[in-house]
Amino acid sequence: MAGNDPKKLEQTEDLAFKRMREKGYRITMPRVQVVRALISNQAKPLSAYAIHDWIITHGGKIDVVSVYRITATLIKVGLAAVITKGNVEGYVFTLPDHHYLFVVAEADSTADRHVIDDDNHRALAKVFAQVSGSNVEFGHLVV
User: Fold this and answer.
1) How far apart are CA 58 and CA 113, in angstroms?
2) Cα–Cα distances in angstroms (integers) from residue 103 to residues 75, 94, 100, in the given order
3) Which of 27, 101, 105, 123 is the most buried (most CB within 10 A)?
4) What is the per-residue pLDDT across 71-108, written as a single tens digit (0 to 9) for each?
């Protein structure tokens, strides 16, 4: 994942925009803003409202309906996925040819027993990558 490294963030963004162009989509400012929000929060699924808030907080301008429309486009081209648990929905950035594993934990007193810490994330990702021969990214969603 790109993390907070500006160079990696820019490279990941470039890959996303290249993919969109290959699929016939124009690179518009609202699409740039949604992609940036998702890339900047890769390990944390964001709701459409959280994406909207992130964009506004970072000086952008977009409405929530556009966020929903753009995330649908990103899912269609393989640059986003939606994680759903009950009525909670979160969007995450994805790249083609990568596998993403998310741990979904209930937000109750037993949640700590279900959340996998970062060291275990890395260990599981390494094992999964060896077995599948694929790139693996991890994140978690607490609902």
Assistant:
1) 35
2) 20, 16, 10
3) 105
4) 999 999 999 988 877 777 888 888 776 656 565 555 54
Look at the pTM and tell me if it is higher than 0.85.
Answer: no
What would be the CATH architecture of the domain defined by 1-95?
Answer: Orthogonal Bundle (1.10)
Distance CA 21, CA 35 (A): 14
* Contact of 34 with 49, CB cutoff 8 Å: no
Helical axes 29-40 vs 6-22, angle rounded to 10° = 130
CA dist., res. 57 & res. 84, Å (int): 25
Q: At what angle do helices 48-57 and 64-76 cross, to 10 degrees?
A: 110
User: Rounded CA gap, 27 and 5, in Å?
Assistant: 23
CA terminus-to-terminus distance, the chain: 23
